[in-house]
Prior knowledge:
Layout: H1 5-23, H2 30-55, H3 61-84, H4 93-115, H5 124-142, H6 152-184
Amino acid sequence: MLNSLPNILTVSRILAIPAICAAFYLPGAWSAWVPLALFALAGITDWFDGYLARKWGQMSDLGRFLDPVADKLLVAAVIIMLIAFERIDRITCLAAVVIMCREVTVTGLREFLAELRVKVPVSALAKWKTTVQLIALGILIVGDYGPAFLHIRLVGEIGLWVAAVLTLYTGWDYLQTGLRHMAADDRPPSKGAD
Length: 194
């Protein structure tokens, strides 16, 4: 199953999550810079696993499943840690909630559409959303441990709000696609799963 480097990189991103979370508990500035380094490494593997899978023709069903799951787990874990360690203001928690709700909704839509054998390609704007989101989260991990004159925390929070707006827009786009296919789906209703 994990016989390709892209899949191994994706799994390494999932395995990095506990280490990133644990690094928040390090003393002083280590609690910012170590999780940032691990998070940045995970972000790099995200780019490389997709690039290598396409370049080497090693795209697999496992990779298609694991890659978005790894991304969502990583983002959710970091958001939870940022909230737990009060590295984002209370009002910015709303942007984090928007991002997490969208991720759950899009995952459900993709699962539904996969049953209909409908592929929903990732839009260029969704890729930009992910980039802005990851950069903002990285900045927020550093937070108050960054240079004071750069207002790191404020920059990160603005980035998270920009990501939340892009999240709503791209999420709405996915939802419209899903609703079109739901309206066209004339299969008998099935019992829902939890």
